[in-house]
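Appendix B. Raw example, untouched.
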Amino acid sequence: MEAVNADEFTVEAVERALQQLYYDPDMDKKNVAQKWLTQAQASPQAWHFCWALLRPDKVPEIQFFGASTLHAKISRHWSDLPPGQLDSLRSQLITQVGQFASGPKMVLTRLCIALASLVLHILPETWSTAVPDLVCAFQTGESVTEADGQARCLVLLELLTVLPEELQSSRIPASRRSQLRSALAVDWSSVCSLLQQLLQRPDAPCLVRERVLRCMSSWLTLDITLKDSEGLLESCFALLKESELFDTAVETIVSIISQPDCQRFADSLLKVVPQVLALQEQLKKAVQDGDMETSHGICRIAVALGETHCRTLLEQVDHWQGFQALVSMIMSCTGTPGHYPVDETSSSLTLTFWYTLQDDITSLDAERQTLYLQIYRPVYFQLVDILLQKACFPRDEDYATWSADDKEQFRTYRVDISDTLMYVYELLGPELLRNLYDKLGTLLTDTTHPSSWQDIEALLFGFQSIADTVDVSYSDVIPGLIGLIPLITANNLQLAETIMFTIGSLAEWLSDHSLMLASVLPVVLHGLSNPDLSVACVSALKRICRECRHDLQLHANDIMAVSQVVLVKDIHKSPQCMWIMQALGFLLSALPSDEILGKLLSLVTPHIQQLEKLANEPSSANKLAIVHILGLLSNLFSTFDLNKQNERLEVMRPVQTQPHNNNPVVVVLQQAFPLIQTILNKWLNEPEVVEAVCAVFEKSLKTLLHDFAPLVTQLCELIGQMFSAYPQASALDLTRQLVNIFGCEKDFFSPIIALLELLTNITMSIFQLGSRDHPDVVESFMQLHAQVLRRKSNLYLSDRLDIKAVFYCGILSFKFPETPTLKATCLLFTELISHCEDIPAVREVLQEDGKLLLQTLLEAIGGQSPRSLAEHFAEVLFSVSRNCPSMLSVWLREALLPPGFPSSHLTTEHKEHFCQQILREQVSKRRMKDIVKEFALLSRGLQGTEYAANY
């Protein structure tokens, strides 16, 4: 817009702006036009120019803007409607809706929404008969097949449809919304009667009946009861025979019977059951014809009824046979022939029903529970058979034709079946495992009927689903199962994978029955050389080594030998190599102490030799290899825990735990230390390499604990060198771990305090040069000092640690936009303030600059930082309130004194009220969080908004 003033919102000016918005290629001009048109819609003149834009000679885009303007004025600027204009507005709007009955559709819909908005403004006080009046205005006696009659009928249906939708989408206060819902519900009987007449008219076109169904779905959002919809529901069931209306009828029926409120009308529900059961012939035909859409739709209806109203229908004990027939129907949906998702899509819809039925049966009173368990236990055994059948893989040649997406959907579907089987086990108990075992035994020993690998795999899959999450230690069939596993010829990848997962799921059982390890461990070790079995096989090995580590001495050499071969040959991808190392860490740490070091050295020496070759030749390929090998070491050390072995020994012979002299991991790390320093010297600017080095020491620290002592001084020096050359968060995180374990030990006070001093000074220099590019370093620095303050605060009594430097770094950190950095900063100040009495340097810096802290904090709360952090800022304020109440009173009032700080939305009264609340609150942290959240909303001008209600 070039020279159009705000008071010149004329029809011509609006049309010029629309021309510019739609057709000008210049984006800046489009944006100017958009902004001007928004102002035009908000202006009082819009009540007048909107009608001119709707004239028949205007193009549809201009008519649409006129209709949108009307809706905007009615919904958002109702208060500036000129006095005495309501009746005129209403009649003009009804006339316009009638004139656009034949389209354009987009203009008609927008006008209908505007009329709906008007109704909601004046119902029921000013226009209590709005709905019947609209029905009367647009209803016609002409046949709905004639053009004009059909158009008016469709307009009426559109109006009736958008009315509840507008109620749902408009910003209306809850109490008013409730009043309007009740007022509209009063008119349902007349609307229902009209809709039923239209559905039952033999000459009603398909389009009209489809709109009727849409209208029904819209009115259902007003909590219309099932009792008040019985006739319409019956008509909807009749429409399921008509293919053009099938999908819409399904949606409407599901909407009606999924209303939880229906449970109050058991009699109405009982009438629905035979209507659903009557669909079985149509369902059967659809399945036979391969009509997935129809079978899917009917299945949705049956499941909606069964799932939503299971409890209510179970309580009607006199009608148990009807409900049992519905359960059988749902069972037939679960067992729909074919493979999901290629041949059918219905079976997956039913799975949650079986959870619901089981839960509802077990929550009934004892008498009814006994009755229903007698009826439904056989049903659940049947369900297990069907689920295992559905979990079967297709024939190899068919599976090869499936798309990647189909295979992924089938994998997810099997996970859902697995979860269902696990849940069903709670109902059926050990008898279920016995049932599966008997079937598996029959399949593997019956030579007259050769079994397919798919059937064997499905039964093992059932076992694994249950054993993965349920304690099967008391089952008497597990020894037999483990005896059967070596008999299975795993000449198929999926079957071999399931065997591995099944063995892994039995690892806990094997730890109590170690003699059986000899049966299954060779199966796992044999599979370890097959890259296609990588995840399943390595997972099984790791679980066995973790659960059975104290019983593997006889098998240790075999496990070590096979593992070393596959690691050297690079058979597995990196994540699985890491799992193998974790498995070996469990294994080695449980061996007799005189064997550990030799085996550990034989395992790591080839990798360390490889590191030596790579260390001096910087290249991107070598970097990846170095990171991989360091990852192997850190994963090995993460599970190499001699303290666990001590715990086991103490159960048999309690003794005082002592640090291990010459812990094997320490010996390896001492030998590798010069090599690690060489790697760092060459690769210091590569964050991945530095992170990988830090991970080796961090994992070792976590498992070795005080056994790590011989390496502390060396490690402090190494971290100092790393951080001096190239500051990285990983070095600070490693220091945090070091401080946590050794911070208060006299022998290490000096190297640790020296390291903290160096890290603090270097980080200070980063802040001085501009720390904005290093949010991760800042975050880790805050976490490190928060940890020191919480666990080892006496380190700050040393003159070598500059607490003031830490304080001012924290103040600067509040300016960062990254949420994790701000959280860490809040944590630091919460801890720091709690030491204002016992650390003189903390008291001194707070006396000097406590007001600066408060100003920075208030600025963050007032709008600079994300609202989600309000409760973390509240933690800091609570710490100040608890520990420095007298100083807080002065700082707070001084900080809030400047007008417009921390926000122009805040009045003097707001600030004073906030001060009083904060100064009073020294007991409840939750209350402090509420106060700060409220202040944050006030500062942003959001208090009382819809957003604030959900905040």
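End of appendix B.
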